[in-house]
Amino acid sequence: MLVPARTAAALACGCLLFVAACDSGGAGGSPAGGARPAAGKAAAQPRPGDFNGDGKDDLALATGRGTVVVYGSAKGLDLRTRRLVHRGFHHLLRADLNADGFTDLVGDGPEPVRGQPRAERFVAWGGPRGLAPGTPLDGTGKELRTGDFNDDGKTDLFEVAGGAADGEPTVLYGPFSRAGKPARSTRVRTGHSEGSFPDRVTVGDFDGDKRADAILRYVSVHPEGDGDATFEETQVLRGGPDGPRLAERVPRGGPERHLDGLPADVNGDGRDDLIGAGFDAYRTAVTLTARLSTPAGPGTGRQVVASTKTPPRLSLGGPHYGGIDGVCAGDTDGDGKADLVASATGANDSNGVIYLAPGIGTAAPGDITGIDLDSPGVPGSN
Prior knowledge:
- Helices cover 5% and strands 34% of the residues.
- It is mainly beta.
- Mean pLDDT is 82; it is low at 1-32.
- Residues 1-21 form the signal peptide.
- This is VCBS repeat-containing protein.
- Keywords: Signal.
């Protein structure tokens, strides 16, 4: 069965149907199951979405059954190639970790259940026939991100422990061996306040120097309190020849500076900006935001806001429930600028709507389009 190639937003809706099919049984239930995808070849800079080097983007999803991949073809996603590559992971990253010219898939385990060990992190190596079964990957941190922090052309992993016992990040430098071992690793000294730790990590090239930078949001939890986290400061680490170093601290109570959001270059200047989205169920309004970066760092440029009341595909009768549950970015129209896709899963009585905003850096409300399971071109029906 082939899923026709459509817009990125329509494909995202179709993925929901695919997940349901996988979890209902008989859909790629073993790592070796499913037809093999077309053979591809290595590339100096492999496409992030292409695991087998055939020039077609592939789909990877973390489902209740595990991590599932479906390979692309000339006619779109080919469900005959679906297969389970690993079990029990929810945060997926794509990068060529071993520098062999194929994109690999990294899975980071969920937070452990009390009394149980944390699930190991894994990497499924890409190759001409697709992903190999998952291999354990070095590292124990809570948050995991990818980027080239020293501009040596190799992908590195950036992780933080996520607990008050250790608030300093670690960089695992590529290339990684097939056994999942980094070439080397270093700690980044941040001088954070005692007892604080990062609860949010954002990685991107915010100053346009071709090296990955990181934004760390530090919080603390009082040992005798109710467990609520208190914001302490935000730190900006800039990549350099020797890796990331502390460049800026934005303390609590200082000048307001918004440094949260998804990194993406929305205006094509080579610097990642910070984008976000919100859905107000009471006002039935969608708001999309882009905070532009400059050579001075993240969020130092102007702010662009696009808001529309009663956006497309939203039922006037409701009910609606607020919030955005997922935001992603990619160049859907080929203009070299990132477009925003946001999922309002509580809209339309929790049937959900996915919103697409091409060119969010200059978007006007009329540019926002909506896709749901009843939209033309989406496989299946609601």
